[in-house]
Amino acid sequence: MSTTDTQADIRAALEACVRDIGRIAPTDTHFDQRSELFDTGYLDSLGIVALTAFVEQRFGVTLADDQLFDPRFTTIAGIADIIASHAATRPHTGSA
């Protein structure tokens, strides 16, 4: 994850990915960043795998099993929170 990624950047990237994986039309008025991704059928089990791979590749975050079963991992906003908390707990390795 880039140190310049904001919460909004993370959410936007996740939304674009989910829309692509789930083939969600831009005109779908029921879909937003707080929509339940799995219970509503926006993503299926293969979609979850693809989304997890995207998160690992794009943000450099390896999600542990407890994070995959975290209640926040059901919406784009929640997944963005998980990613942001990963970044917050990483030790700073840059120079001062």
TrEMBL record:
<dbReference type="InterPro" id="IPR036736">
    <property type="entry name" value="ACP-like_sf"/>
</dbReference>
<dbReference type="InterPro" id="IPR009081">
    <property type="entry name" value="PP-bd_ACP"/>
</dbReference>
<feature type="domain" description="Carrier">
    <location>
        <begin position="1"/>
        <end position="87"/>
    </location>
</feature>
<protein>
    <recommendedName>
        <fullName>Carrier domain-containing protein</fullName>
    </recommendedName>
</protein>
<dbReference type="Pfam" id="PF00550">
    <property type="entry name" value="PP-binding"/>
</dbReference>
